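Researcher: Please predict.
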Amino acid sequence: MPADVLYIDDCQELREIIPELIRYNLNRTCLSLSGLSQIKEKFSSGHSCKVVILDIDLGPGQPSGIDIFQWLQSQGFKGKMFFLTGHGMSHPFSQEAKKLGIQIFEKPLHSKILLESVRQGLDLNVAG
């Protein structure tokens, strides 16, 4: 199923909440996945998305959000991407992500900030 937004996080609760938040407030679809292997399986259907939200740390032994960012770029993704982190800006993953020049938001993130970032990425002038 094509989606407007792709959300990647290892937290099951957030993978359930964020798509509903986007659907309800912006009237857009959001595909929610837990990691790189799922993205590789579904990328053809997720490729139409315009915005990707990546949790930086997807758990021990898993590719990071940075790895996913780099993989998406290698696949030609040109949409808006931004990172979420619960570790703070001094964490090595956050420092590495910062070097990529991609916006990073710290968790917990207020829903208005998340929705505004998605809205901008989708190039929506008004709330949906």
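Model: Residues 12-26 form the longest helix (15 residues).
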